Write a sequence for this structure.
């Protein structure tokens, strides 16, 4: 069972794993704090380490608190939408035709049938976003299968409230958050690489980190950028 370190108003969830070093993390968006320690670490030692990092923890939590949040989208004209990290202004067109989405250099045009409500407009957008991802994800998986020497049995796209991606190590599958269509493509690639490394090492131990370091040296910058971008109203609570 997990243990907890209480430092004033900060509660730190402690877990032990077969690793060499202590990993302290502050998770977006609420600033939840976790500490992963080597199996033999005594709780008082972990507590002393956490105390030494208290100002860093508070600093990270303040940054997350100030971080921009994207308000819930209504899918209406003049609303901002992001595709691959670029901002577009939405234009809604109502016509008796098959719903569609198109981009030009400044606008994203959502064409729907007359009477389509916000829920229908959102679904048309979501299906279009999935198509954009389906066009980009397979080549990236193929590229990294060769680099990592692994095989992805399948990938799935879905709305995920808790994380950007996940990996089913036993089945060889990866799942990707459809929100990634809004982020720059290099950040999508980082998430894909991260999940594919889990096919070599299921846990976030030292081996996992060393493989990621070797194969994707800028992973820390990518992770930081992903965490700094605006979060959607429903978005991840890892």
């Amino acid at each position: 069972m997990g243990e907890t370190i209480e430092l004033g108003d900060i509660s730190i969830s402690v877990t032990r794993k077969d690793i060499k070093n202590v990993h302290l993390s502050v998770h977006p968006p609420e600033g939840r704090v976790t500490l992963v320690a080597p199996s033999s670490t005594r709780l008082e030692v972990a507590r002393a380490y956490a105390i030494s990092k208290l100002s860093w923890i508070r600093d990270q939590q303040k940054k997350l608190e100030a971080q921009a949040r994207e308000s819930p989208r209504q899918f209406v004209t003049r609303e901002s939408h992001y595709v691959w990290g670029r901002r577009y202004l939405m234009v809604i067109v109502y016509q008796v035709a098959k719903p569609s989405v198109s981009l030009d250099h400044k606008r994203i045009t959502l064409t729907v049938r007359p009477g389509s409500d916000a829920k229908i407009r959102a679904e048309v957008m979501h299906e279009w976003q999935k198509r954009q991802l389906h066009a980009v994800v397979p080549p990236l998986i193929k590229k990294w299968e060769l680099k990592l020497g692994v095989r992805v049995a399948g990938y799935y796209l879905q709305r995920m409230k808790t994380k950007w991606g996940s990996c089913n190590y036993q089945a060889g599958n990866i799942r990707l958050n459809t929100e990634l269509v809004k982020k720059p493509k290099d950040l999508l690639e980082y998430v894909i690489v991260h999940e594919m490394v889990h096919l070599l090492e299921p846990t976030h131990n030292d081996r996992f980190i060393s493989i990621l370091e070797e194969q994707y040296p800028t992973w820390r910058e990518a992770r930081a950028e992903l965490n700094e971008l605006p979060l959607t109203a429903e978005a991840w609570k890892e």
